Amino acid sequence: MESGSKSINKKLMMSTETTPKHREFHPHILPLSVYIGVGSALFILTGVTVAASFVDIGGVGNLILALLIASIKGSLVALFFMHLLYDNKLYALFFCVSLIMLTAFIVITMFDTMRRDGIYEQRSSPIQISADIYKNMQKHEE
Amino acid sequence: MENATQIELGRVNYHHHNPNLAHHFHDMEQQHESIKLGVWLFLVTEVLLFGGLFCFYAIYRAWHPEMFIEVNQLLDVKLGALNTLVLIFSSVTVALSIRSIQMDNKKQAVMFLAITIICAAIFLVVKYFEYSHKIHEGLLPGKYFANPDIAAVNPHIFFSIYFGMTGLHALHILGGMIFLTWVLIRTHMRAYSSSYYTPVEMGGLYWHLVDLIWIYLFPLLYLIG
After folding, report:
1. Is A49 a member of any domain?
2. Is A45 within a domain?
3. Inter-chain contact A106–B58, Cβ cutoff 8 Å?
4. Global confidence as pTM
5. Which among B27, B208, B219 has CB closest to A82?
6. Which of B55, B63, B192 to mutate to test the interface with A (most CBs of A within 10 A)?
7. Most CB atoms closer than 10 Å: which of A110, B7, B52, B120?
8. What is the ipTM of this complex?
């Protein structure tokens, strides 16, 4: 009986060797210099963005420059502090998709809000004054 | 006989497991990555939440570019820049607290978390002085705007955007402070080590996002023209 259970135990031990191993958890540690370097870069870029705001480039130049510097700073935070550079790229994909969606959201909204004057102009000089929509508008005004 | 071997199998397989491993995960690595994916999904919803306000900003800045340039002068660039530096410094310290707990240095992790929370408090105190100054001058959002000295048209819109965006951001700072305080207490109670520090890292991720949003808010609100 005892020898029987021992042999089964042996078999079990052999079988557990073939099952997938539980992965040990190993933290990915960055050297201190990375944090100090990225931190200093962020401090310097903050100074640059403040200084750049006092120089008038003209038009939307200042806005584009400010957003460019902010994006460099944001990328440094996301890639190093948020570990996107070293982690599974799925997280970076999620984050990038949200930024693409946000861009689409703002651009499509502004196609509307920046072009409303055009709609009012078209209304004031219709191609076909006999169209139903203008008849209804006239009725509504009466 | 078979029952006995099954019990034996169970003991062999589960005995040496980390007590922090939830039963529905296969191992610590999988648990850590799953939680991180969930937190990233949450951060994505945060991007879209603030995205609505950035869209609000884009529409009104495009409609009233001169008003934005003129009214923007009423904000204090020095206080805004100070808050930016404080927040970037706190981002560095929260990253270092994660690094410390990764190396099993509990004392250092607690110290860096404490510095992060103090920086968050400094940020809110500076914001309090800025807000009370604006309220005193009647520079308020929407119909509450009550400052007759400003020549620009529709200045109340700028202050709706200013208070809306910085107010929501300040609430996030407050939320981050509460969560990081909980993490600090748990770290002090030796709940985390190099084999399990997921909540520390997730608190850090959230904190970095709050910093990232401010990196955009600062030039867009304080540094126009």
Report:
1. yes
2. yes
3. yes
4. 0.84
5. B208
6. B55
7. B120
8. 0.87
